[in-house]
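Retro notes
What went well: the complex prediction finally ran end to end.
Inputs used:
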Amino acid sequence: MTGSSTQSSNRADAVIECRNLWKIFGARANEAMQAVQDHGLSKNEIRDDYQCVVGVQDATFTVGEGEVFCIMGLSGSGKSTLIRHINRLIDPTFGEVLIEGQDINRLGAVDLRALRSTKIGMVFQNMALMPHRTVRDNVAFALEVRGVDRDDRYRTADEAIRTVDLDGWEESYPDELSGGMQQRVGLARAIAADPHILLMDEPFSALDPLIRRQLQDQFLHLSAEMHKTTLFITHDLDEAIRIGDRIAIMKDGALVQIGTPEEIVTEPSDDYVADFVAGISKLQLVTAQKVMQPLASFEQQNGPLDMASCLTANLDDNLDALVDLSIETDHPILVKHDGQAVGVVTKRKLLRGIQGKMED
Amino acid sequence: MAQNEPFNVLRPFDSIDFGIADWADGIKTWATENRDVVQPVKWFVNDLIVGVEAIMHAIPPVFMLGIIFLLAWQSAGARVAAFVSICLILLGLSDPNAWGLAMTTLAVVATSVVVCIIFGLPLGLLAGKSDRFEFAIRPVLDTMQTIPAFVYLVPVVMLIGIGNVSGVIVTVVFALPPIIRLTSLGIRQVNASVVEAARAFGSSPRQILFKVELPLATPSIMAGLNQTIMMALSVVVIASLIAVKGLGNEVLRAMGRLDAGKAIVGGFGIVVLAIVLDRITQGLGRSGRERGHRHWWEGGPVGVVIRLINKKTPKSTSNLPQ
């Protein structure tokens, strides 16, 4: 991992695990990889010396059971390349990908196909539906290639179609549907085979904002219900924060920082991440704990606090809740933990917190 | 003559003679010597053509018209079917012999086209999948399409003899390239992300080919078939030089006798056949969206029959009129 990272140690329940994954594109990729290992070449040196392009650079991360893990990066940062390693649509130049502890780069063609059709569902940015098949036949595709008989796979497909609220459209063709509906078909196709893992490659990026938000909500709802381990690619930090349990920021093929949305927003590891999160609203993400002043130091500065007249909040209340309280009173807000007063949030601290200037 | 010229640096080609033409003429000798080997194959193919021809002649023109009408209706709609039928009626009226000659030509063209499909589809698939094969086969296809038929007419006749089989071979050489080219193009044009999605859901290469690539390449392949048929029709006059009967032969004979009228009748017949086959095959090449997303059995005469049957069945349960 390059730079500092706040990733917790490898989780015991890891469903997806990437270890030191590298992808170098070009005729001399293996030579370039050797040179990287021997001399630690930089991306630009690899390009100049070997005419190779680095797609993914030493990516290491784990995704736990039921977790939604977002990879956020701008276009060209390698995120779509990275996600294609998880079901081996792309073979890595170096490193390992483990699915439930199994190294998929050691699988034979038949086992790999079985893994893809039973354990991993994928949703694509451009939907990639089959134009010559009805919605039902599209959704049933993974079951069909697995050899499930027609009645069974249609029953399962219809269920998945109902899950994404498209009942009544089973007999339609993809080009008769709107973009948002097409992507719901894409989602139904991914979940129809009931895989453990969902790979979402910028699924909502091509949709207009309102539809995107609807689909995000629908996805969050489904995700909470189905509890599938999800790797979610996006170029939209707001989306990553809304959807992800944890977020990895990707830049030039490398994962720059991995952490919870709050960690990313409040403790950006470098200027690149800091720039990204600058425009993000902190109201829902930052908690009282981050902006409060410890009670002792407050009383040292300002004398004893009249606790009875203060409104109280909990440690994990977010700024939005603190604003609601602050409107009602001129006094600072008292923060309690297990019934014990532990800190104070003044108006100044609260407003600075909303601005994202925690240190002030 | 060339040997006598002294070598001149500015005109080097005048004095150099590798004797390629003489060497190539050896093909003729080789062909005559190997005649016996190919005769059994020749008789098999010839019987096939004669059989097809006999069937087409045995069907009375009115039935044949009906069959073609239904076929055109099914593939391209009622309007095209009506147009095609009118064209064929005009062909029949143009000369008492015209219908029979047209059927003979149709038999030879149909056989040639079937041979083209048998060879062209797999070769086209291969070319679509492999850049190397495409690179290798392209000059061959260029040659087949541009080399004058007269060049290979002689060796083919030496090897096989005059008649229908040689006619089919000459036709296939000329008509094969489009279906190969357009099959390859169709496979190459299949949306890569759809193929990727199929892979991501665990399809084998075979499943990708039959469930994704071939269906999506169908309009292009049909366009190739259409062009192959057009090409096959355009060589019927040349094929008649080696004793293939039919409309082409009519044109050839009229030319020999300077009989412009007969030539026009023969030529008109070829054009009508071309139009009929073109319209029917173009109908096959329409994409699902162009057909309004109906299955082929939901439209045309088959659709009418199915609707009639469906209407009859529920009659027992409901007493509604209609």
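What we learned: The interface with chain A takes residues 191, 193-194, 196-204, 207, 211-212, 215-216, 288-289, 293 of chain B (CB under 8 Å).
What to try next: split runs per interface for comparison.
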